[in-house]
């Protein structure tokens, strides 16, 4: 697939004027949560840069992702709020207002890749908790959301002229949604005692169909130096109050010899993404090291900011490849219930 010069110019121009974050589930153990990159992905994740599809070996892939991401100390503060007395509640609630969010993610996926094109079937289950303080800060409301999406993605990418690569993908989605709220009264106890149950709730009440358009570019600036741009949800949509506008991310990748690559990437500014109706933003740095042709290690750090509350996490993944099999295991440290992933590819 060779994008036309006009399409490439349009995508570059749009990135200069509209640039919210890229926040995506690290399906197929591919992405910043597990030490990798979204702009310079391994080409496995259908939600990452489609221009990188050619980097993935042709084959059939299965994926599983599970775990939590939270603002710093969110879990312990929720537990403290559940048993707080009227005397201690204000201090605990003030700290919780600075660490208001938690998200639990579970995802499954199947992908087929051939001739720099892919077809993927994925399911994501996103459970979120958000603390919304009132004007006094003493009686906030804890809101839990459940968003699931079954998705068919098709797309691909390839090399164009002058060291330029491009790719596009289309997503056909079925979303299910549910929400529940629990007000906090600082004069009664216990409070927020079922917070963890809300985070694990599987109830949905609404459903809708949607479509998404994504694109990405890679520029070879010099030998061993590349600049990347990705854009997702190029067609804006609003689902149950979550205003999802076009998202863009920029990244720089540098080769340090034949075995090592370093990547830096960041959302240019913030935007809303499921399951929270608040703005998010992410930045990351990663190192890719090829131990030998059969083993690759990815190491990286990721800073995520949701509604002004940030958290930094570190991730790693290990790829083991044979002539007919690819195994990938990913892990993100720094969580009470850390994210983890496994991918198997039949080449």
Q: Can you give a write-up of this model?
A:
By secondary structure, this protein is mainly beta. It has one domain (5-346): Porin (Beta Barrel). It is 11% helix and 55% strand. The strands form two sheets. A 14-stranded antiparallel beta barrel has the order 1-2-3-4-5-6-7-10-11-13-14-15-16-17. The protein has a two-stranded antiparallel ribbon with strand order 8-9. A hairpin with a 3-residue loop joins strand 10 (247-256) and strand 11 (260-267). The longest helix has 13 residues, at 5-17. It is elongated and about 65 Å long. It starts with a helix and ends with a strand. The relative contact order is 0.21. Mean pLDDT is 87; it is low at 1-23.
Main attributes of the structure:
single chain, 347 residues, mainly beta, Porin, 14-stranded antiparallel beta barrel, two-stranded antiparallel ribbon, 4 helices, 17 strands, 11% helix, disordered N terminus
């Amino acid at each position: 697939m060779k994008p036309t010069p006009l399409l490439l110019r349009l995508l570059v121009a749009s990135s200069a004027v509209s640039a919210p974050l890229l926040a995506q589930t690290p399906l197929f153990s591919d992405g910043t949560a597990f030490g990798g990159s979204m702009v310079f992905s391994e080409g496995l994740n259908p939600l990452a840069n489609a221009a990188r599809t050619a980097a993935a070996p042709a084959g059939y892939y299965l994926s599983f992702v599970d775990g939590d991401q939270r603002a710093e100390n969110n879990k312990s503060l929720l537990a403290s709020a559940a048993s707080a007395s009227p005397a201690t509640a204000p201090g605990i609630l003030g700290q919780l207002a600075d660490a208001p969010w938690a998200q639990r993610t579970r995802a499954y996926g199947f992908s087929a890749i051939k001739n720099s094109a892919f077809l993927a079937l994925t399911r994501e289950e996103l459970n979120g908790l958000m603390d919304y303080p009132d004007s006094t800060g003493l009686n906030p409301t804890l809101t839990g959301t459940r968003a699931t999406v079954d998705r068919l993605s098709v797309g691909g990418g390839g090399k164009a002229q002058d060291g330029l690569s491009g790719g596009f993908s289309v997503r056909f989605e079925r979303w299910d949604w549910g929400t529940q709220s629990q007000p906090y009264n600082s004069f009664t106890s216990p409070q927020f005692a079922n917070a963890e149950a809300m985070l694990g709730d599987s109830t949905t009440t609404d459903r809708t169909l949607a479509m998404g358009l994504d694109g990405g570019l890679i520029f070879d600036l010099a030998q061993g130096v590349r600049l990347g741009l990705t854009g997702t949800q190029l067609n804006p949509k609003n689902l149950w109050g979550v205003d999802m506008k076009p998202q863009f991310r920029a990244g720089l990748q540098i080769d340090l010899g034949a075995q090592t690559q370093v990547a830096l990437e960041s959302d240019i500014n913030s935007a809303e993404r499921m399951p929270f109706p608040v703005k998010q933003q992410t930045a990351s740095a990663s190192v890719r090291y090829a131990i030998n042709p059969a083993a690759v290690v990815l190491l990286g750090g990721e800073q995520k900011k949701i509604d002004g509350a940030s958290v930094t996490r570190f991730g790693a993944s290990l790829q083991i490849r044979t002539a007919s099999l690819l195994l990938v295991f990913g892990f993100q440290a720094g969580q009470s219930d850390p994210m983890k992933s496994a991918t198997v590819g039949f080449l």
